[in-house]
Amino acid sequence: MSLNFIQIILVLIVSFLAGVEGVLDEWQFHQPLVACTLIGLVTGTLVPCIILGGQLQLIALGWANVGAAIAPDAALASVASAIILVLGGQGKAGISSAIALAIPLAVAGLLLTTFVRTIATAIVHLMDAAAAKGSFKGIDFWQWFAVCLQGVRIAIPAGLILAVGAGPVKSLLGMIPDWLNQGLTVGGGMVVAVGYAMVINMMATAEVWPFFALGFVVATIPNLTLIALGAIGVALALIYLTLQESSKSNAATGIANTGDPVGDIIDKY
Amino acid sequence: MADRIKLTKKDRFHVMWRTQFLQGSWNYERMQNGGWCYSLIPAIKKLYTKKDDQIAALKRHMEFYNTHPYVSSPVTGVVLALEEDRANGAPVTDVAIQGVKVGMMGPLAGVGDPVFWFTMRPILGALGASMAITGSIMGPIIFFVVWNIIRLAVLWYSQEFGYRAGSAITKDLSGGLLGKVTKGASILGMFILGALVNRWVNVKFTPVVSKTPLSKGAYIDWAHLPKGAQGIHDALTQQAGGLALDKVKTTTLQNNLDQLIPGLAALLLTFVCMWLLKKKISPIWIILGLFVVGVLFHVWGLM
User: Fold this and answer.
1) Cross-chain Cβ contact A121/B200 below 8 Å
2) Which chain B residue shows the shortest CA-CA distance from A45?
3) Which residues of chain B neighbour A107 with C-beta distances below 8 Å?
4) Same domain flag for A81 and A145
5) Could you read off the pLDDT of B158-175 as tens digits, one per residue?
6) B286: closest CA among A62, A229, A25?
7) What is the overall mean pLDDT for chain A?
8) Coil, strand, or helix at residue B251?
9) Residues of B in contact with A17 (CB under 8 A)
10) Are residues A24 and A104 in the same domain?
11) What confidence category does residue A107 fall into, taking pLDDT thresholds of 50, 70 and 90?
């Protein structure tokens, strides 16, 4: 499917926003759920792009920039795979190969953002110079310059894919045999685990592991929606915190021991 | 004290709006320093009228800074209060201001990462995604709207809280509330993660373990159904009544595993991924490896 001029401009704007958010992490335009949906919206292929966004989101759930560590780049992965899905014109059938393409793109995006963040080191020195002159405008300008660089980081690759055009993208996707496509779908089902593993590694302590077990077992009841599971989770957290508080105050008055050596160590810590 | 310079609500809101660009010039040298300085400009303009004071203020806010972008707001609030005092002649030193920033950014990042990146985003993301994969636009909309309402509320109210509490807040940081929020978030997060691993990690083994022929009457007798719509109706009724579709009951490896507990293979796969990550293997390699495994196992008929 080919896009008209206005659609191309809109796709580039969405790409730019995704790139900006890839570093700011505020409005979440870089999250697959939002980015793919917006691409679908401006190109008139809404439903396949929403589904793509949902599946990519499940893979990217655990991707987060923590401290100076940068996660695989959801922005380029979502924008580029959504554009490829649109250009390929296969609709829902093209989703699994678009997802497989998204992963190498996430790596490419990671390299690009590392590159831009290195350039930003030079930019803050220009901001230093502006500060030394007391130039508010100078600081504003360079800040915006850095923000725009991050936007361009995604907009340029998006533009390149658009420039290559529907034909080559379509024939490339047509070359993918069925067994590979189905195999990639199988792989895509497993890849989700990596994101969860990243989050669990960050959060897990001996104290909270039992809650993981509870969540896993309770989720086998198909009638419970995610909202229901969320409610159970919140309730468990509140109950636990309240009980811990009361056992602590008991211990302080000498009435009872907490009987929770791990909790005590953590509290003291 | 009649002509004390004060930051109005509008000034503080303006600063809050700019803090959204905190990470815009994120760099490997001083990380969020450029965005931090950028966000304080409305306050600096208001508080200091002499050029020299403005320059000094800009320079002292170009120092190293890095924390979670949302929970940075209480720090902004405190610094606004300190700068306001300083502009009104209180002996607030550069060292004190930098000390507050550095002292708060560590513990706050320790709260922001688990609460927002590892609890809220996985939960809201999974909720949105579960609707999106059925093609519903409500998924992305709910994710986007709920996330941003919470985010803006946190930015504004925690900045106001920091501004009112001033430097007193630094003492409160080591106290109970933040620790509770963090622990509550990790409990909720781990619970939901357990659920997500079960629901959304798809590992299905297709090899057939056994084929047992069923006794007559345990399956739908297709040859003796009435013709046309009545036949379909009967078939569906019989299926709802518990009859099997085929004469032979096929048990796959997956059926056997599901009898232990559904999602067991997904759980084991997640543990393997955790172990690989702890071995410092890059997530990208694990992801690519899983795609390769998926394709190979599919070709071999295992999955």
Assistant:
1) no
2) B135
3) 284
4) yes
5) 999 999 888 676 556 555
6) A62
7) 86
8) strand
9) none
10) yes
11) confident
Q: Does A220 lie in the same domain as A138?
A: no
pTM assigned to the model: 0.82
Whether residues B34 and A46 touch (CB distance < 8 A) is answered with no
The encoded tokens of residue A87 equal: 């250009």
- How far is CA B278 from each of CA A199, A201, B167, B275, rounded to the nearest angstrom? 12, 8, 39, 5
Alpha-carbon gap, residue B164 to B12, rounded angstroms? 12
Q: How far apart are CA B245 and CA B241, in angstroms?
A: 11
Q: Which of A237, A256, A238 is closest to A247 using CA atoms?
A: A256
pLDDT the model gives residue A190 = 87
What span, in angstroms and rounded, lies between the C-alpha atoms of B28 and A84?
Answer: 33
Burial of B193 (0-12, 13-18, 19+ CB in 10 A): buried
Q: Which of A38, A61, A220, A264 to mutate to test the interface with B (most CBs of B within 10 A)?
A: A61
In a domain, A188, yes or no: no
Could you tell me the pLDDT band of residue A129, with boundaries at 50, 70 and 90?
very high
B257 neighbors B264 (Cβ within 8 angstroms)? yes
Query: Do A12 and A134 share a domain, yes or no?
Result: yes
Residue A29 to residue A17: CA distance in whole angstroms: 6
Cβ contact A34–B45 (<8 Å): no
In this structure, is residue A201 part of a structural domain?
no
Note the pLDDT of residue A213: 93
Largest CA distance in chain A: 77
Contact A37 B137 (CB under 8 A): yes
Sign, CA torsion B27/B32/B34/B35:
positive
The predicted-structure confidence for B189-220, as pLDDT tens digits, reads as follows 899 889 888 888 888 888 887 777 777 777 77
Judge whether A263 lies within some domain. Answer: yes
Q: Do residue A171 and residue A251 come from a single domain?
A: no
This model of the complex carries an ipTM of 0.83
* Residues A62, A157 share a domain: yes
Please give the backbone phi and psi of residue B213, each rounded to the nearest 5 degrees, phi first. -70, 140
Res A141: pLDDT = 95
Question: For A237, which residue in chain B has the nearest alpha carbon?
Answer: B184
Cβ pair A33:B140 closer than 8 A: yes
**Domain containing residue A114:** 5-181
Q: Residue A256's pLDDT band (boundaries 50, 70, 90)?
A: very low
Residue B77 has what pLDDT? 93
Q: Is A101 within the bounds of a domain?
A: yes
Q: Looking at the 3D structure of chain A, how many domains does it have? A: 2
| Average confidence (pLDDT) over A17-23 | 94
C-alpha closest to that of B147 among A59, A149, A21, A236: A21
- Determine the residue among B138, B192, B257 to mutate to test chain A binding: the one whose Cβ has the most chain A Cβ atoms within 10 Å: B192
Of B203, B211, B267, B268, the C-alpha closest to B244 is B211
Do A173 and A217 fall into the same domain? no
